[in-house]
Amino acid sequence: MVMQWLRRIIIGGVLLLVGFFAFVWYANFSATRAGKGVLFDDVNDVPKQRAGLVFGCSEKLGTRDNLYFKYRIQAASELWHAGKVDFLIVSGDNRERYYNEPVAMRRALVKAGVPFDQIVCDYAGLRTLDSVVRAKKIFGLNEVTFVSQKFQNERAAYIAKANGMKVLGYNARDVEGYAARRTEDREVLARVKMWIDVNITNKQPRHLGDKEEVPE
Question: Which pTM value belongs to this model?
Answer without folding.
Answer: 0.91
